[in-house]
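Recap slide: Prepilin-type N-terminal cleavage/methylation domain-containing protein, sequence and predicted structure.
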Amino acid sequence: MVWRRAVSTPDRHRSRTDERAAASLDFRSGFTLVELMVTMTIFAIVTSIVYFAYVQALRTMTKGEEAADLGSAVHGLVKTIRQDLLHSSYLTEAARESLGIVTSDGEEILYVLHDSVLVRNEAPALPQGIMLDTFAFAFYGNDLSFDTDGDSSVTLEELDLDSDEVLKPGEIERVTLVEVYLQASKHDLSRAITSSVYLRSPGRAPATGLADTSAFPGDRFGEGTLFGEGTVLGERERLKEKDRQKQKEKGFGFDSDIFK
């Protein structure tokens, strides 16, 4: 019997070595449980930060839109009231929470506050969702006589209301200036505004009613013509040039629309 020695060839040895190396490489290229947990933790943190930033940006944008809507509604309401007063022929009602106007075109307009809702001719004056926290009218007037000290000014005083918060009888024809104050809110936002308007036809009344100032057709008041606090410039047409020069000499430096 002949014994033969088995000799391993280099190729077979190299093949087994490559297989072990490949298996070892595959094991090292994978994720361990610790690495996977760390990766998931980092991903969760980054996702939370991004989500928080998105929510904050969304809230800021929503609040900005609500603030714009609230401001637009409040200023729009005040603008409407001012326009109605500037075009008024006379007042039919004057109270803390209500105002009746007849315009030069004969249109009747009534503002009434009812259960914190301001109504203009039976229609809500503010959009739905906006709450009216505070609303009030104030009325100022004079006796339609001019001072004799040569400065052609009259002093305004706030007209008293009775116990029902209504202008006392006989004083509605004295109204020269109407002031409106309102504060409105939407969610946690709030806006307040005060505005005043000088009537273009103060003291004028309907044919059946209040004081008639037709004897002084030149007397008229403009909007926003205050000298100091609580006074308003008013002058007859025949004195307008004289008063303009007088005011320029005093250094007021502007021309009022009263004289135009």
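The longest strand covers residues 175-186.
Confidence is low (pLDDT under 50) at residues 205-240, 252-260.
(End of recap.)
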